[in-house]
Amino acid sequence: MPRTSRSESCAATGAPIYLPPLVWLAFFVTLYLNLVSGVVLTFFPIYGLAIGLTLTQVGLLVGLHGAAAATVRFLSGIVFRWVSYERALPVMIVVSGLSVALIGGVQVFLVLALGWVGLGLSRGLLRVASAALVMDEAGETDGRRGAASSVYLSGLDFGRVLGPLVGGLGAHAVGLRATFLIASVSFPVVYFVLAALLGRHGSKRPGGRACL
Prior knowledge:
By secondary structure, the chain is mostly helical. The protein has seven helices and no strands. The protein has one domain: Growth Hormone, Chain: A. It has helices spanning about 5-10, 20-50, 55-80, 85-105, 110-140, 140-175, 175-200.
């Protein structure tokens, strides 16, 4: 029976600390998605009414977001034939940030609709691309796959908790419009910093952090 090294044995346990760094980047993508959703979806109805939109218009805009996200997921296979999911990730982060900036920076309904569609499209593709990243990085053992999946999906849960809290604190401190605009810049900046740091220490599939 072949002997396994200490690092291989530790990695096979599926402990989150030994997962490849890029799994943690995918975790941040899902955290980012629900942070943005928590900020925008929670507080846009209040903001929309304040800038003169009707309840019907608010509902239509949020519905466009959901429709765009759902539709683009079905088309993501075609999209990723033309561009790899690794390249799509940073592009969609930028699209998401620009979309949030439109939502917070304008009051014209048609431009707001463009922002909401852009936010939905970026969300749909980011979910697919980040899930693909996790599958490629997780490794071959059930333990590692389970650990990678749990870390990845926990980002959604943490985002649901933190998004409304961050949005509420921001709205109280600087107002809703400023909160949207700050979110549109700060969250993407954090992503690119983490991508640079984690990518520099990224594992070669299916490796992971060595056991100490």
